[in-house]
Amino acid sequence: MEIFIDGNYSNIRFSSAHFIPGDWKCSRIHGHDYSISVKLFGQMNGKSYFLDFSQAKANLKDIADFLDHRVLIPEKRRGIKIEKGDGNLNIKLGGKRYSFPEEESRVIPISDTTAECLSEYILEKFVKSLKQKVEGVEIEVHEGPGQYAKSVWKQKSS
């Protein structure tokens, strides 16, 4: 059995600023209006459902709210130096210096703030949040109309 939650229509969205170092336009600070969609796979095992939609949506919304209206900082980016001081995050990366209010930022354990890396991060957090047994999860992080990254998790066979 498969169920799908469309983040755009279910209001599971967040807006964030980020930068992706390199010699291209995405190295400049910019932002996206993201949405998170999910497919869940499981067995009904004699019941009429296998997952509570409302709980899954609430878990995704919590993740989106955590990232919403923040500057996303990739903690695992090679060469990044993040220092805290006077309520700010001071970042050195690729010859540039950035300073953001700490309360308006999220340092997240990923190598970059691409849709691909964000989808892996969100997938991990979402799978850990599930209380119900599922066989698989696919997370889509849409960073604009018509473009998204997808990450997949499958229950290991025992």
Q: Briefly, what CATH class?
A: Alpha Beta
The CATH topology is given as: Tetrahydropterin Synthase, Chain A
**Treating each run of at least 4 consecutive H or I residues as one helix, how many helices?**
2
What sequence of helices (H) and strands (E) makes up the elements? EEEHEEEEEHEE
Which geometry do the CA atoms define?
elongated
Structural class: alpha+beta
Notes on the protein architecture:
It is a single chain. The protein has one domain: Tetrahydropterin Synthase, Chain A (2-Layer Sandwich). 19% of the residues lie in helices and 41% in strands. It contains two helices and ten strands. The protein has helices spanning 53-67, 115-129, and strands at 2-5, 13-18, 30-41, 70-74, 81-85, 88-93, 96-101, 105-108, 136-144, 147-154. Strands 1, 2, 3, 4, 8, 9 and 10 form a seven-stranded mixed sheet that branches. Strands 5-6-7 form a three-stranded antiparallel sheet, with no helix packed on it. Strand 6 and strand 7 form a beta hairpin. Helix 1 (53-67) packs across helix 2. The longest helix is centred in the middle third of the chain and has 15 residues, at 53-67. The protein is elongated and about 60 Å long.
Brief rundown of the structure:
It is built from two helices and ten strands. With 158 residues, the chain is α+β, with helices and mostly antiparallel strands. It has one domain: 6-pyruvoyl tetrahydropterin synthase/QueD (Tetrahydropterin Synthase, Chain A, 2-Layer Sandwich).
